[in-house]
Amino acid sequence: MIDVPLDQFEVLVSEALDTIPAGLAELMDNVAVFVEEQKSGRPGLLGLYHGVPLTKRGTGYSGFLPDRITIYRKPILRQCSTEEEVVVQVRITVIHEVAHHFGISDERLHELGWA
Question: What's the whole-model pTM score?
Answer without folding.
Answer: 0.93
